[in-house]
TrEMBL record:
Protein name: Transcriptional regulator, AbrB domain protein
Domain of life: Bacteria
Amino acid sequence: MAIVQQIQKRMIVSLAQIAKDLNLHEGDHLIIEEKDGGIFLRPVDWVDKNQKYFWTKEWQEKMKRSQEALENGEYKTFSNMDEAIKDLEELVHANNNKNQTV
C-alpha cells in the first residue's frame, strides 16, 4: 500500500508506483469515488481497459465475420453438450487428416 501526501488545493502526489502497477499513463482518466469513508481511484477510458481488446481492428473484423456467418446461416445447433463435443472432435480429426502429407 502506498502512502500519499495531500498538498495544494486537494492535489494528491506520489502515485507513481500505483500508476506504474496499473499501467496508467499521462492523459489517462480516473474515476474518483468516495465510499465507505475512503477515496477510491479507478482507471477508466472511453472504453473500459478490460474490454479494450474488443475494439481493436482485428477483433472487430472477427466480429464482422461472425455476424455475417450468422446472417448466412453458417452455424450448427446441438441438442446437448455431448453432440457439440463430438462435432468438435470430428472437426479436429478432419483438420489433422487434412494437414498430413502422404
